[in-house]
């Protein structure tokens, strides 16, 4: 099966500029996640979609970050304006829908990530 | 609030030696625990989960609720086990939705 696709792989921008990342999940996966991984730390969830609805965006800095998944398939994450501390790898992941507790049929499948450098 | 702690950032062992990567968690409910692995230049992927009680690539992990731990073990390390390992906890975040929280990771190096 094709994996989670992300683009671009790398992006370098100056602070206060805007940037957008794209993710195409595995076909049939209803749940899509965006994680931020700062160097030396584990991935931190930014936003989680179930189909085209947001189910958790509690850790998304909404003053500058936005994400959408209009048709319930691919998704974009935008940062506007970027800050130096936004330098990180942005990971997209997907899983089958219905994250029933105790169900281990839906592990997360990750993309290769986009490495963002803000100068 | 839930928390996942991996006390070792780096762990170095020799080939054939036993290896244990530590993971402790804090969570008031019943957690689901996972180990994810990232090999060099590859994407993050699931290694194993406590519910299935499986052994993957010789690795096992037992959930110890008394000690709130989920340590990853392998009796004889191989060079190809060198990678970044993340412990993760999944909990209910509301309704039928669940949230996965990762530890900071441990970089395992297996020396020849």
Describe the structure.
Chain A is 0% helix and 46% strand. Chain A has 119 residues and is an all-beta fold. Chain A has one domain: Immunoglobulin-like, CATH 2.60.40.10. In chain A, the strands form two sheets. In chain A, strands 2, 4, 5, 6, 9, 10 and 11 form a seven-stranded mixed sheet that branches. Chain A is globular and about 35 Å long. The mean pLDDT of chain A is 90. Chain B is mostly beta strands and 112 residues long. Chain B has one domain (3-111): Sandwich (Immunoglobulin-like), CATH 2.60.40. Chain B is built from no helices and eleven strands.
SSE layout:
The complex is a heterodimer of chains A (119) and B (112).
Chain A: E1 5-7, E2 10-13, E3 19-24, E4 31-37, E5 44-50, E6 53-56, E7 65-68, E8 75-79, E9 88-95, E10 109-110, E11 114-118
Parallel strand pairs in A: 2-11
Antiparallel strand pairs in A: 1-3, 3-8, 4-5, 4-9, 5-6, 7-8, 9-10, 9-11
Chain B: E1 3-5, E2 10-14, E3 19-21, E4 24-26, E5 32-38, E6 45-49, E7 60-61, E8 72-74, E9 83-94, E10 97-102, E11 106-111
